[in-house]
From TrEMBL:
GO terms for molecular function: 6-carboxytetrahydropterin synthase activity; metal ion binding. SUPFAM superfamilies: Tetrahydrobiopterin biosynthesis enzymes-like. Keywords: Lyase, Metal-binding, Zinc. This is 6-carboxy-5,6,7,8-tetrahydropterin synthase. Belongs to the PTPS family. QueD subfamily. Its EC number is 4.1.2.50. The keyword Zinc applies. Gene3D superfamilies: 6-pyruvoyl tetrahydropterin synthase/QueD. Pfam families: PTPS (PF01242). It catalyses: 7,8-dihydroneopterin 3'-triphosphate + H2O = 6-carboxy-5,6,7,8-tetrahydropterin + triphosphate + acetaldehyde + 2 H(+).
Length: 165
């Protein structure tokens, strides 16, 4: 019977400060605001006879790199059915919501491949980018990956990947 373990990573550097607004309907959204988000990742897999599942170092660095890439940015959702996004001649962003026109400089924006900028979508996008095509997970005998994204203490959403289908 293979022995499994779960390694949990929630290091101090696994954080990013970012702005957003949640869209609740075609006519209701929040005002622009931000959070100090934190990220927790857990990987579960088989432990080999050398007492090692896999070096978690590369995954840890990938989490920290993604947090750095998402630090000090403003998220706009690319797939919201309530928000239309355009780029102007300078590559800056115009967002149209319920008759409002919001302008953002390209340097300040991260487009999120998501329907909304919510904890659940941030956790999903974060996790899907860590898993990729799953090859690294298979190589490292990781059978389950959990990503939790918190917008502050005591408030988070969870995304989970299971390698066993
Ligand atoms: N299902 C979801 N609902 C809501 C989300 C979300 O991500 N998923 N997000 C929001 C707002 O973005 C809101 O900012 C969430 O946090 P809020 O509690 O308003 O603010 P703080 O993080 O500062 O927490 P405090 O309790 O105010 O300290 C709403 N709904």
């Amino acid at each position: 019977m293979a022995r499994t373990t779960t390694i949990e990573l929630h290091k101090e550097e696994m954080k990013f400060s970012a702005g957003h607004f949640t869209i609740f309907s075609a006519t209701h959204r929040e005002n622009l605001h931000g959070h100090n988000f934190t990220v927790y990742v857990a990987l579960t897999g088989e432990v080999g006879d050398d007492g090692l599942m896999a070096d978690y170092g590369p995954l840890k660095q990938a989490v920290i790199a993604r947090c750095k890439a998402w630090n000090e940015t403003f998220f706009l959702p690319e797939r919201s059915r309530h928000l239309r996004l355009e780029r102007d001649a300078n590559g800056n962003h115009r967002a149209y919501f319920n008759g409002e026109e919001l302008h953002f400089l390209a340097r300040d924006v991260t487009l999120l491949p998501a329907a909304n900028v919510t904890l659940e979508e941030l956790a999903r996008v974060f996790g899907e980018e860590l898993v990729g095509d799953g090859a690294g997970m298979a190589r490292d005998h990781v059978t389950r990956l959990v990503v939790k994204c918190a917008s502050g203490p005591g408030q988070w959403a969870t995304w989970e990947w299971n390698g066993n289908g």
